[in-house]
């Protein structure tokens, strides 16, 4: 009886200690980090992580986030900084030289000095809009990694919009600089998106380490047919498109052909990286037929224009929601951590219509696949639509553990890269523990 009395006294103290334990997590989204914790009254508090940084450090980190890859310098190989320095110097000297050459050409055309200088300045401003477009689009790099096909198509749509403004500029010559500037702005964004997505597309075709050869041959084909296109354009400009009416008819037809062609190109590319859409399709195919689809199998099934659609057969999973919006109560957070104690994902289905999966910052493609399989199995087991219970999640987790080794091995044999999960700008989190309770 004495022993029982001691235990009864210890239990409340243990619960109180657990309640006082000041654990918190940090969520990162688009280079912004915030700290979240539940207080003793179960209220969620929010705090910016880097508020105390010196102003100079803040500016430096903002610069690195804007112009260097995520995770720099650990995410790149040695020599990247030297390469970037000389690349910057190359572009500065080239841009300065182009201004001088443009000015010289205008003088050579017989323009008077003062108008020529004004025209040269206007032309530089017009080209400057292209650089603004490039800078704005450079912030979309993570999204382009996740959906290279979509952004490659958007690049050509933007390019055609910019070209369309230039074609229409003779209708309002008094707005030449404005229309040319907007056209170049759209083209600048298009150039960045097209160049950024070129490597993932070429990589999807590469075998036996021949990426450089593929890239070189692809650029050779582009150059050859650009020359052919220039010849066709010269012929059209001197015949049916010699008038504005002809341009108004032919230009839209060429733009439609252009976008259609790039769409079919992207449909043919077997991209082998894991993103939310492709992961959902892999899991759905595995659960329905027991098959492991290859990148070639899925390429024509991808939805290029609405990649964020929910795949019901794969558990109706959504990735990237902030943890503080998925977990409403501290008790729910504790329960989920008990269900998945060693994993880098958490799953919740309290929204009813879909299942939220939140990934830790260091989660890989394999972690995302585990979570997706658990969500899909749990969805199939769940008879009610009021959310997934912990018992269902535990059963689904055990079932996932039985099939996962052979499942991920089959994915690698099919050519999938499982070391990364490209979720665009989805929010991720990291656990932290207050040192005074360690």
From TrEMBL:
Residues 293-422 form the Root UVB sensitive protein C-terminal domain. It holds the Pfam family UVB_sens_prot. One of its GO terms (cellular component) is plastid. InterPro entries: RUS_fam, UVB_sens_C, UVB_sens_RUS_dom. Residues 58-289 form the Protein root UVB sensitive/RUS domain. Coiled coil: none annotated. It comes from the Eukaryota. One of its GO terms (biological process) is response to UV-B. Belongs to the RUS1 family. This is Protein root UVB sensitive 2, chloroplastic. It comes from Amborella trichopoda.
